[in-house]
TrEMBL record:
It comes from the Bacteria. Residues 1-18 form the signal peptide. It comes from Micromonospora zingiberis. This is Uncharacterized protein. The keyword Signal applies. Keywords: Signal.
């Protein structure tokens, strides 16, 4: 039987992008299972506060105490704006992890499920911001399929088809911490955002 691997073609009209990568040569052929090949087009990382409260610890009141934080925002895993992510999302988010350099949530998840009541320990008096948050990741991906064509007496041909683009969101593990106005923290970090939220 003759097997031909055809040149890649676009299946649908799509905005021109110069930054996507076609699947590796040899991916599409008799051995291909039919599942899509994903490529991440863009990823943007934003530190995001999800829960916060301000608290004044007066002299003589240090030690452990339980406090309940207020939700200020939320981040969820989404594909195309929908929180109903399919099983294929795991493969997409795995590639997102590689692109951004840290592990992200790869199944349906939301910061809304985080516990807001927590035990805190204070060793010094001061005006504190208590926070929970994460690094939200958003961007766009594209996907390809390997199509098989029966050419009759000429054999079988395969070609790679780029099917379209879609958006996604996901997030890093949850960070929990405290910050005071006098603390020196790097700009662009979650603690920096918490200090701004504190009103410093």
């Amino acid at each position: 039987m003759t097997v031909l691997i055809l040149l890649s073609t676009l299946a649908i009209a799509a905005p021109a992008r110069a930054d996507f990568i076609w699947p590796p040569r040899g991916w599409c052929g008799p051995h291909t299972t039919g599942g899509p090949w994903y490529e991440i087009l863009a990823s943007e990382v934003n530190p995001t506060l999800t829960h916060f409260m301000s608290l004044n610890i007066a002299p003589g009141t240090t030690g452990e105490r339980t406090e309940t934080l207020t939700k200020v925002s939320s981040v969820s895993t989404t594909i195309g704006g929908s929180v109903e992510v399919s099983s294929s999302a795991g493969a997409i988010f795995t590639k997102v992890s590689v692109k951004v350099g840290f592990s992200v949530q790869n199944t349906r998840a939301s910061t809304d499920t985080e516990t807001t009541s927590m035990r805190w320990s204070f060793n010094e008096p001061g005006y504190y911001g208590l926070y929970k948050g994460t690094r939200a990741v958003s961007g766009e991906y594209t996907w390809f399929r390997c199509l098989r064509h029966d050419l009759g007496p000429l054999g079988v041909a395969y070609n790679v088809v780029r099917e379209g683009t879609q958006t996604y969101t996901t997030f890093d593990n949850i960070e929990v911490g405290t910050v005071r106005c006098g603390d020196v923290v790097p700009m662009g970090t979650l603690r920096f955002k918490a200090r701004l939220q504190l009103g410093c």
